[in-house]
Amino acid sequence: MNKQIVELKSKASYWQVFRLIFVVLFLYLMGDALFRWDGFRFYATFSEFLPCIALISVLWSIVAAFTAMMIWLPPVIFGRLFQRIGWKIRIENLQVFISTFLLFGLMASIVKRLILPSIKATLQLKIIVFLCAVLAGIFLTWKFLDKFERWAGIIHERITPLVWLFGIWVILSVPLVSYHTWIKPSNIAVSQKISQTTTDNKSRPNIILVTFDTLTARDMSVYGYHRQTTPFISEWAKSGLLFTRLEAATNFTTAATASLMTGKRVWTHQTYQKIGGKPVKSNIENLPLVLKNNGYYTMAFVANPSASVRLLGIADSFDIAPLATEFSAPASLTHIIDKTLYRFFGDKIRLHDWIVKADFISSRFLYLISRDFSITSFPPEKVFKRFLSVIDENPPQPYFAWIHLLPPHSPYLPPLPYMGMYDSSYKLATYKSQIGVKIEPNQYFSMEVQPAVNMLRARYDEFIRYCDKQFEDFIAQLSTRDKLKNTVIILSSDHGESFEHNYFQHGLEHLYEQVTHIPLIIKGPNQTEGRVINDLIEQIDIPTTVLDLANIPVPEWMEGRSLVPLMQGKRLPLRHVFSMNFEKNPSLGHEIIRGTVAVWEDDYKLIHFLEEKESLLFNLKQDPDELNNLFDREPEVSQRLLTLIQKNLKEANERISKGE
Question: Does the model's pTM come out above 0.85?
Answer without folding.
Answer: yes
